[in-house]
Amino acid sequence: MEYRELGRTGEKVSTIGMGTWRFGTYRSQNERAEQLKALRSGVELGINLIDTAEIYASGRSEETVGEAVNEIRDKVFIATKVAPGHLHHDDVIRACAASLKRLGTNYIDLYQVHWPDSSVPIKETMGAMEELVKHGSVRYIGVSNFSVRQTEEARQALSTDEIVSNQVEYSLANRYVESEILPYCEREKLTLVAYSPLDRGHIAKSLPEGLLTKYRMTSAQAMLNWVTRNEHVVAIPKASNLSHIEENAESVRTRFKPDEYELISKG
To answer: Which of 63, 65, 72, 246 is 20–30 Å from 104 (CA)?
Structure first.
């Protein structure tokens, strides 16, 4: 597995992480067991970044993550998110406490503001985030779905800590971040955490067959390899079964050449 620095922290996270949207939602105990097995197997394969949120499955996603990593907490980097309806100071503090309880841990590695809310002063939210860092409940602060302007405002609202990442949608089919957000992250040394890197399951059918054959990659692997071609990007594809986890983990075992990335980009 390939690892990259998170922002300027010196912390190394796997280039391919595990997204857990809808984890904790299942139709049978077998499906539940499969979710737990997928997360644990991902860690065994070298994936240390696990991303969740308090709103995923009404908190059950965090509970599933917590159960899966209960005995291997020191091997994983847990990222979760505070909901946009909880951005007032006291709400942030309470939301974090609830997430910690569901996760079964006493600290969150990366706590992210899930969506901006213009009705709440960003300084109030960031003040609460810094308190959480000071008290040891949170290690690093991140944002999600923030524009460059909103990210700058969040950074300026902090007095002792830094924003280390911005989680945004990014895939071969959805490249809006390339105009402003990605260049900003490169320039400011922030990590861009790409969610839905497989375009919500719409796997590209137009990838060059010659490249897939040359590198022995599936189309999904090539999409993950492409979206993480920049050293400031990590991806968190959702994978609720073992076969997908294994496929994702192998996606960055080697790298395309620059001209081959260009060929993929042109589609």
So the answer is: 246
